[in-house]
Amino acid sequence: MSTTTEKNSKTVATNAKIGTFIGKLFSFNSSLKLFHWHITGKGSYAQHMALDEAIDDLLDIIDRITETTYAVKGDLAITIPETKVPTNIVNHCEDFYNYVNSQRPLFEEAFSQAIIDDYTEAIQQLIYRLKRLE
Description:
Layout: H1 3-38, H2 44-73, H3 89-102, H4 110-132
């Protein structure tokens, strides 16, 4: 296989992984909204508001990373996976934070890394609010 063919194959594989990653970002945002609609009980207003703010912040960041990646990589095949209501919202957020960090190598540019930084910061802010505020 020629070097050009290998490079093109690697680009296609990376773009597919990025499309999967962005789909999971959208799914995570939807999972937060699903949980948001089910909140009741003590501290529910604080959780409700924390989730509302995070959903808006994360959606803006998802748009930024998606549009930036389209500009750098070209069109992506994005599929949003089935989304379920999380049972433990804090664990769900912590697990997704770790997943996002594990996908950082997909983004080589410093400006893309900065957008991922904004995304993980927003998740950390949400975790703080869910754990500490009532």
